[in-house]
Amino acid sequence: MSGTLQADLVKPFVYHAHSSLERVTEMLEAEPGLLNAAWDWGGGDWETALGAAAHMGRRDIALYLLEQGARIDVFAAAMLGRLDIVQAVLAAGPQTLHAPGPHTISLLAHAQAGGDDAAEVVRYLEALLA
Questions:
Q1: Structural domain contains residue 111
Q2: What are 15-31's pLDDT values in tens digits?
Q3: Nearest to 54 by CA among 32, 30, 31, 71
């Protein structure tokens, strides 16, 4: 496909990235341009597939997307337990601590979705928020 991606591809790709690695893989193989595509759920609530996987704690989907070349953001980094990235982003822009992610989900909630793998990031963010 050339040119602009069609909404009938982007919306389901981002939707499936909340829960289905199999569907994400199928869709990305069919249309590689979906990798960094974003969908606006309304009111400026933009979300990429990586963003969807991040707030759902779907490490498998997030890692697959990153392996394919998705652009990491601080919310995905928090869920994946990448303290180095979270610290660097917050050092460059401390206001990011309070920035809303997709669906207005906080940075801390993204880290909490990462479970044990993100426990160090959770502790770090909790200390900053205290």
A1: yes
A2: 999 999 999 999 999 99
A3: 71
